[in-house]
């Protein structure tokens, strides 16, 4: 159609639920929606560095990234803006994480030389290019490799594209059922609800550790689309689905969030360290048909 769409959050008339926070994030959402091959995040440096290259001569270039979480531990992007040479890298890393999860290769490079976009695409599109080949100056950039198994469109949109209208707090048993055994969220595992929302809206699902009155950070389990309103969930929390009709006068669904509408965000490490007990681990082995080691005398096969 010979049309180039330009998406800019600053041009939106209404904010609220359609506000993403910055144009880097908005570009990643757009790239994921249209299944783009590349997302270019243009800034004032050729690529990402391990530190500010203008003040630290030992700063090294980062040209290839497959693990963004590991990169955050190795790179300092705490300061934003051209004054320190990072070009707002913190938000660009977030955008790269969103886009690569959707299967979009993401590139950070200098915006004052537009020709580099063409040079980068041509360089990395070469099928004979060795994996460890040096990047020429004309194509210098930081390239974030897209996930080989990207998140399906529906769940990617639930996680990154939908505004969370509230929060559902669940117990530890529900956490394991959701995150490890990929079950739906049932009302019996809901402890309380925060916020006001309608059915089919997105919510955060979190776990709040029990303490002796001391403040503690909640652990996010994931995002999902609810089958009931916040008021309805508050009435049926802790109850079995067989009780819904007596409480509400109807039963539209036997669960609060169907597993097909749930996206898990908690890491396996946190799940194992905080929630999965020996009993659960034994059940996991049984379901995976992996025998329990004979040396594990404290474990029993279910």
The main sheet orders its strands as 8-7-9-10-11
Compute the number of strand runs.
11
Which shape, going by the Cα principal axes?
A: elongated
Give the class from helix and strand content and strand pairing: alpha/beta
pLDDT < 50 runs, ≥5 residues: 80-87, 294-302
Mean pLDDT: 83
Topology:
Blueprint: H1 23-33, E1 38-43, E2 48-49, E3 61-62, E4 64-65, H2 68-74, H3 89-101, E5 105-110, H4 115-124, E6 142-144, H5 153-161, E7 164-170, H6 172-179, E8 190-194, E9 202-207, E10 219-225, H7 230-236, H8 244-248, E11 262-264, H9 268-275, H10 278-287
Helix pairs in contact: 1-3
Structure description:
With 302 residues, this protein is α/β, with parallel strands linked by helices. Mean pLDDT is 83; it is low at 80-87 and 294-302. Helices cover 29% and strands 16% of the residues. It is elongated, with a radius of gyration of 23 Å. The protein starts with 22 loop residues before the first helix and ends in a 15-residue tail after the last helix. The strands form 3 sheets. It has a 5-stranded mixed β-sheet, with helices on both faces. It has helices at 23-33, 68-74, 89-101, 115-124, 153-161, 172-179, 230-236, 244-248, 268-275, 278-287, and strands spanning 38-43, 48-49, 61-62, 64-65, 105-110, 142-144, 164-170, 190-194, 202-207, 219-225, 262-264.
């Amino acid at each position: 159609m010979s049309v180039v769409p330009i998406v800019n959050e600053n041009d939106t008339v209404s904010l609220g639920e359609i506000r993403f926070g910055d144009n880097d994030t908005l570009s990643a959402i757009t790239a994921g929606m249209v299944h783009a091959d590349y997302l270019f995040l243009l800034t004032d440096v050729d690529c990402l560095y391990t530190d500010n290259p203008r003040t630290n001569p030992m700063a090294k270039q980062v040209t290839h990234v497959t693990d963004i979480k590991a990169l955050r531990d190795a790179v300092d992007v705490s300061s934003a803006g051209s004054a320190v040479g990072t070009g707002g890298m913190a938000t660009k890393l977030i955008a790269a994480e969103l886009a690569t999860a959707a299967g979009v290769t993401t590139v950070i490079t200098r915006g004052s030389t537009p020709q580099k976009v063409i040079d980068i695409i041509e360089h990395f599109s070469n099928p004979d290019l060795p994996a460890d080949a040096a990047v020429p100056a004309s194509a210098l950039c930081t390239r974030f490799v897209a996930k080989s198994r990207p998140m399906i469109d529906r769940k990617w949109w639930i996680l990154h594209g939908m505004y969370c209208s509230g929060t559902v707090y669940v117990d530890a048993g529900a956490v394991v059922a959701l995150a490890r055994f990929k079950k739906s969220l049932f009302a019996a595992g809901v402890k309380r609800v925060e916020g006001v929302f309608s059915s089919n809206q997105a919510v955060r699902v979190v776990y709040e550790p029990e303490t002796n009155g001391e403040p503690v950070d909640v652990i996010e389990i994931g995002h999902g689309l609810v089958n009931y309103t916040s008021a309805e969930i508050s009435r049926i929390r802790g109850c079995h689905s067989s009780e819904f009709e007596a409480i509400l006068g109807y039963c539209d669904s036997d669960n609060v969030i169907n597993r097909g509408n749930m996206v898990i965000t908690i890491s396996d490490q946190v799940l194992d360290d905080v929630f999965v007990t020996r009993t659960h681990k034994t059940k996991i082995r049984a379901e995976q048909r992996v025998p329990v080691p004979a040396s594990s005398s404290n474990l029993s096969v279910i």
